[in-house]
Amino acid sequence: MKTLILIRHAKAEEHSLSKSDFFRDLQPKGIERAKRIAESLSNKIKVDNKTLVISSTANRAIQTAEIFCPILQYPTSEILQTENIYEAHFTEILNVINAVDDQYEQVLVFGHNPGLSNLTNYLSHSEVELATSNAAILKLEDGINFSMLSGGTATLIGLVK
């Protein structure tokens, strides 16, 4: 059974006129919380060569992925970065996931709200709002692969917060 883990980026700098939203960096308290949640997630999942990590290219998302991956024992050099997750509607994030090769059993996606929360709710018919650094763990229904993933074809089995 395939697993999808949707992870919202850690707490970032406040919006300002001096820096584009895309380039906002993580705050120290966001980094600490991300480390704590990554440790907790590492006790719930096993990362192996059938795992793929995908991240938005926005600073705060890729920085969050770079915190989680060493803790989960996934090489940061293998993170697939895509602009298609930044400021994306949940259907655009789903398009990225639908393109994942069938060889992968587990996919972790680092991105932004409201897209990730909306995607979690669409896939699992749940009602969650992911806070910063939170991870939603979804199991795909039997016989469903990432290319077939759509509304109601996954079960929310846990939130790591």
From TrEMBL:
Transmembrane segments: none annotated. SUPFAM superfamilies: Phosphoglycerate mutase-like. Pfam families: His_Phos_1 (PF00300). This is Phosphohistidine phosphatase SixA. It comes from Sphingobacterium kyonggiense. The lineage of its organism: Bacteria, Pseudomonadati, Bacteroidota, Sphingobacteriia, Sphingobacteriales.
